What does this fold into?
Amino acid sequence: MKPALTFRHLVIAALLVGLTLLPLYVALTGDRFMLTLFTRIVILAMAAVSLNLILGYGGMMSFGHAAYLGLGGYTTAILSFEGVHGGFVQWPAALAVSALFALVVGALSLRTRGVYFIMITLAFAQMAYYLASGMARYGGDDGLSLETRSTFGDLMDLSNKTTFYYVCLVLLFASILLVWRLTNSRFGMVLQGVRSNETRMSAIGYPAFRYRLTGFVIAGTLCGLAGALIANHTDFVSPSMMFWTRSGDLIVMVVLGGMGTLFGPVFGALALLFLEQFLPHFISFVVRPINPAGAAKAGEYWQLVLGPLLLVIVLFARGGIDGLLAMLSDKLGRKVRP
Amino acid sequence: MSEPMLKVEGLAKRFGGIVATDNLSLDVAPGELHAIIGPNGAGKTTLIAQLSGQLRADFGRIRFAGDDITALPPHKRSLLGLARSFQITSLFLDLSVLDNVALAVQAHAGHSFRFWRNARKDEALRAPARAALERAGLAGRADGPAASLSHGEHRQLELAMALAGEPRMLLLDEPMAGLGPEESARMVSMLRALKGELTILLVEHDMEAVFALADRITVLVYGRVIASGTPDDIRADAKVREAYLGESDKEGAHV
Amino acid sequence: MTLFIEQCLNGLQFGLLLFLLAAGLTLVFGIMDLVNLAHGSLYMLGAYFAATFAAWTGSFVLGAVLAILATLLVGMALEVIAMRRLYGRDHLDHVLGTFGLILFFDELVRLIWGPGGLSLPVPPWLDRSIEILPGIQYSAYRFAIIVVTLAVAAFLYVLVMRTRVGMLIRAGASNREMVGALGVNIKLLYTLVFGLGAALAGLAGMIQAPILTVQIGMGENILILAFVITVIGGIGSIRGAFVAALLVGFIDTLGRAFFPQILVELLGRQAGSTAAPALSSMMIYILMAVILVVKPQGLFAANSR
It folds into this structure.
């Protein structure tokens, strides 16, 4: 039997506690930037959690997941533009639009396999991208600003950054709980069975398509909610949030954190956004002793490091951060109990 | 003779110019262990694929337990009680042994659009799965990952999964393939235990096993039935001797 | 009518250009089973190389030749250093690894050439109109593109269908063990194939350089078009890529040119002019979706894998 409490569990617990207590740190230090950064991390983690459901557990290599971020965001922004500010209207509408899009895309693309599936999901996301660029009334290429954040009457005030952070965090935890229950349910067993061996699943009596489609729609819907949140976070939406490289970022988060693990996507979102934020400083720091004048400039080229880093992770650390933690747990566990 | 469990009439399948199944008819009686033999390329695997629904036949009809299943997709045939095992091991290697069988049980327990309750703690799935593992002689390996089993154990797991759905008939595609003598003997005794309980269609190269187990044997050559009868009939059949001895195939030596 | 013919020629020219990109992608797909998102980066490099070398040498043609050679070398180096390690892994690994390479190349270009972008002027001897049909004037540069790309397509056809190397390429697409067993150095073959794909991408980038601005990220939009083409055509099929590239080139060009007018006629000025830009950009993707629904393996499925 595995030990009940491993190093990995401790790290996950620390992550959850850390996320929960972050506003306390912000209040103590006055570092408002951290709150903004972490709100973004939490929202994108939610998007990554939703992608992980189909990519990690369902084996569906969707390359168009950012479309749902955009659809959720645009639904919220357009309703706001048209004078509907109520969150109880905006958010369900964002969910519904994403669900519908996922249903159509899934129904068409799940008939294909392999590279064809990757490319057709990408093509549909590009359609959403061009659709948004073409909507002159809603800003076209330039995007659309939100006048106010979604209103929830006296229930909560999202313009309060701490409140908004907690709303996002609660929704992230709820998504993780949902994915946890889903993946251990009968439905989730089927999803994982199809990932593992689809031919066999139909041989033992499952209509695989329906289960894959259901998973696809759940993931899209959940990501649509993250889209509504991100529109509220930045008070702005634009087509670029749906560009295919954004979908690539979401895949990176899932794989970096650990595919098909419950908390992997959260680690992945945290790691990618941290790299994005702090790798420049780190590079400057390393370069400074060698070339003080060029240090700040060197930091600008952080993607020069991030790109090959991704390749190295793909080649040598497929389990991602979660896999690394599990490995460390194993080693530590063995030392503790001989 | 009562209504056959499986009745195949005039089945035909071509791949381009190659005739894989040629106007094939076959009856399997309830409770019978019916073996299909034939040299390589005789169309045995294509036949299994058509019976299980992986391939659609060009012509002909397949009736199973009185229902016409010719046009049904694989999962519906499976739900009617026609289970198959795969020639090349086809398991969920990244799931546990028990999960593999539990998935097979779950397939027959109504739809799986159940999103909340923990299926891994659901005794309605786990108990029958453990029972099927027991019957296939794998009770001790339930909790390990399927990837960690030996080749022989994989074949046993295949059998357990086919049994898990409480099928009425098993299509076994070379269950002995690649097994050592000891593992083969274990598989033969397991199949003998199942015989009578279930109708079985067995495609197998191991002639010793076939002649030891089968009630009736059908011989395929180039997609056509050249003989069908009891093991003694087949042994004595001139056309069969010619088909096997004509080819200096390694299997010929066993006949 | 004149406008229509001119747009048809533009469509042909764009389609042939896309074929250069798609051919490299589909070769690499078909033979090494590798999804290479960084293909667009090689296209971008080709454009940057061309602009730089043309400025150095003062000659457009010399600059172009050097640019293609340089992209070929970069491609082969890339294969040896990175791509080789991705063969045999699943597509998710390819997507991620080559996605990382896009970030790397974008940043590398910014480091070397700066964020501003470059321009490559059309050489004077091509910077004019010629009368290609009685009464119809067409840009000499674009006409030259059509001629050059058609020649490259013919070269590719002969290479793949008529030569020993091509036979190995086709055999490699269907059976890599067999090619290995024949005693062919499969590693070298793969490096050469990847280099060829890179050189084609570089050529495409070089060709586009005088038409568009040479800038970072220029490969990212056109890469997706090239992918759409390989998928429509059937992965691994050069012929499919050719047909699909022309199809996409025509539909995209003619769609953008005439579709808005048609929509205005159909829907009225207000609705038509609102819907047109989005719809004409989406048309190719709609085409792809329709084709994949009808033929999930593309138009010319090479070999199902």
Observations:
- The mean pLDDT of chain A is 90.
